[in-house]
Amino acid sequence: MLWNPEIETMPRHELEKLQVERLRRTVERVYQHVPFYRQKLDEAGIGPAEIRSVADLARLPFTNKQDLRDNYPFGLFAVPKDEIVRVHASSGTTGKMTVVGYTKSDVNTWAEVMARTMACGGVTNKDTVQVAYGYGLFTGGLGAHYGAEKIGAAVIPISGGNTKRQLQIMADFGTTAVACTPSYSLFMAETAAEEGIDLHQLPVRVGFFGAEPWSNAMRREIEEKWGIKAIDIYGLSEVMGPGVASECMVQDGLHVWEDHFMVEVIDPATGEVLPYGEKGELVFTCITKEALPLIRYRTRDISILSNGTCACGRTHLRMHRVMGRTDDMLIIRGVNVFPSQIESVLLEIGETEPHYQLIVDREGNLDDLEIWVEISERLFSDEVRKLEQIEGRIRREIQSTLGISARVKLVEPKTIARSEGKAKRVIDWRDVYSDGNR
What we know:
By secondary structure, the chain is an alpha/beta fold. Helix content is 32%, strand content 23%. It contains 12 helices and 20 strands. Helix 2 (12-33) crosses helix 3 (35-44), helix 7 (163-173) packs across helix 8 (182-194) and helix 8 (182-194) runs parallel beside helix 9. The longest helix has 22 residues, at 12-33. The radius of gyration is 23 Å and the shape is globular. The two termini are 26 Å apart.
């Protein structure tokens, strides 16, 4: 189902004409109101008046996450504070939070692209949408919420957790669509089996899953256990939140809503723009956002872009499911985790050796993190109680810093393999990036 047929099926030449107009206005906006961008554009030798074609996008400078941190909290905002109606932010576990703001128009745009996303899965005003993404500074819950409301669907803003109650509400309230992380949907399926609930008997017929990497094998498992269509959605708070791109019922790539977000794939090493069909790093430019219109934002997500009209009739570019990252960031239960965060916690505690390894797996259908920490010869000979105290302290500090629980295992001296090059800090047993269709 199309939510905005005129835009979603717009001929490419008309869409590109619209993009160029909006890009020029956005560059004008940031040049006038954001000193960071004025300096970067001056250094690149390009001004708003020189934006004449889609190809000129490649002449603009990149923005990255560190730029957001360096200008914390509002240094990249392009409007006065009194025009901001919403603020979201990252957890800030790697240092300063990355803060994103929205004007009233931005919130409406967000609702529009999420309405298109929900319509991709056939949601109408006759549906009941259960939003089991987290609400708060995280963008997942409210993004899905406003999109479903814009369509006119009834929204159940239940947020995550309390799984038995989630299932009870689905049955009692007649939930027809669910929005959550894919791993949580499988955890709900496990709980349903334990409770003797047959998910196929529930009215749920479609799910919108994102905020963490997942594979086609996981999609098949979700669809089989729930008896629903599992739609892959993509977004990141710096660009908008969920609703940047979405699969349709054809499930042949995620449509990027290009009238709001211009997308490129670049060689992560050289920054060179790659042609359609080649794998590289996704880069997004916001061309309608007022509060925080990022220019050529490097996502670190690896994907492939495809052109050509989809069988559903939409003409917007499609991105393949995210295939990996250019950095060492992990997404565990929807939370971004860098090994450097773990390292900082260990160094702060200061009672162990600076050798550690993260073992990531899926226990059942939920991500599991175990941290192996090497102890010194001196500690190794200490009493068990002392070792348990250190282990407990590390576990609590990790929970406090990252916001997720992890098992901690203290290992004997020289247990963790040394490397003359880059240390192998992560062993990820999850099959989250494989895709049998590619």
